[in-house]
Specification:
246 residues; 34% helix; binds iron/sulfur cluster; binds FE2/S2 (inorganic) cluster
C-alpha cells in the first residue's frame, strides 16, 4: 500500500497551524477517507463534519489544495500525491475547530429572503396552469445541496467580508428559484438591489466553477436577476413610467 502526507489545519477561533500526517492510501479513496483514517489512528480529536459520504448532504465542505471542494467527492487519484495534500476549513466563515466552520450566517440570510407566495389558482377547482418550459427553468436551482462552497469562493465574502451587505451566490440561486417560479407572485427586485446587494457581484463566475451540482449559478441565476434590477431601476423608459404612474 502506498502512503501520502496530509497537511491538515488544526485549531479553532483563537488560531491554529498546519500539522502533517502520513497515512496509507489505496485505489478508490477520497480525501474524506484519508481524514477518517488519520482521525481513527493518529488524531482522535480531529474535528470534521460529514454525513452522507455521497455528495448529497453538503456537510464535508473544505478547501483541498486551496480549492473549495466536498471532501467526500474528491478522489485521491485526482491529486498529486508526491506533495502533501493541504486540507483546511472554508475561509469565508468563522472556524469552530479544525475542519469545521460555523455556517449559521447562511441560515440567517435565508430567513431574510421573501418566501414563496403563489398567485391565486387559475381554475375554479383550485389548480394552476404552468408552461413546462417555465417549470424546467427553475429545476436546476433546486439541485442545491447547501454546501456553501460557492459562498466560500466568492471574493465579496471571502476577501471583502461583506457578509452584512451581500447574500452571496447560494442565496442568489435561491432568490432566482423563487423569482422565476411560474406561480410566484412576490416581488424581490427592490431587495435584490438593496439589502441583498446583488450589485457587489461582478460576474467572475468563480462560484459556478466550484459548484458540485454543476448549477450554472452566474449565467442562469445571477445575470437574469441583475437584468430585472436594471430593467426596474436603470431603464430610462421604465423610469419615466414609474414617475408617471406614481
Ligand atoms: S460571480 Fe458573483 S457571486 Fe459568483 S463568485 Fe463571482 S462575484 Fe461572487
Ligand atoms: S449553489 Fe452549488 S456550490 Fe452553492 S451551495 Fe448550492 S450546491 Fe453548493
Ligand atoms: S459527506 Fe455529504 S456531501 Fe460529503
Amino acid at each position: 500500500m502506498a502512503s501520502a502526507i496530509f497537511r491538515i489545519w488544526r485549531g479553532d477561533g483563537a488560531g491554529g497551524r498546519f500539522q502533517d500526517y502520513t497515512t496509507e492510501v489505496a485505489e478508490g479513496m477520497v480525501v474524506l477517507d484519508a481524514i477518517h483514517r488519520i482521525q481513527a489512528a493518529q488524531a482522535n480529536d480531529l474535528a470534521v463534519r460529514w454525513n452522507c459520504k455521497a455528495g448529497k448532504c453538503g456537510s464535508c465542505s473544505a478547501e483541498v489544495n486551496g480549492i473549495p471542494r466536498l471532501m467526500c467527492m474528491t478522489r485521491l487519484s485526482e491529486l498529486p500525491l508526491d506533495k502533501p495534500v493541504v486540507v483546511e476549513p472554508m475561509k469565508a466563515f468563522p472556524p469552530v475547530k479544525d475542519l469545521v466552520t460555523d455556517v449559521s450566517w447562511n441560515y440567517e440570510v435565508k430567513k431574510a429572503i421573501k418566501p414563496f407566495r403563489p398567485r391565486p389558482p387559475d381554475a375554479p377547482d383550485g389548480t394552476w396552469r404552468m408552461a413546462q418550459s417555465d417549470v424546467d427553468r427553475v429545476q436546476e436551482f433546486r439541485k442545491c445541496i447547501e454546501c456553501f462552497l460557492c459562498q466560500d469562493v466568492c471574493h465579496v465574502l471571502r476577501d471583502h467580508r461583506l457578509h452584512r451587505s451581500f447574500i452571496g451566490p447560494r442565496f442568489l440561486v435561491y432568490a432566482a428559484a423563487l423569482e422565476m417560479h411560474p406561480l410566484d407572485a412576490e416581488d424581490r427586485v427592490d431587495d435584490l438591489r438593496g439589502a441583498h446587494g446583488i450589485g457587489y457581484c461582478n460576474i467572475t463566475k468563480c462560484c459556478t466553477k466550484v459548484c458540485p451540482e454543476s448549477i450554472t449559478i452566474t449565467d442562469n441565476a445571477i445575470i437574469p436577476l441583475k437584468e430585472r434590477v436594471v430593467d426596474r431601476f436603470y431603464d430610462p423608459l421604465t423610469k419615466i413610467l414609474r414617475v408617471l404612474t406614481k
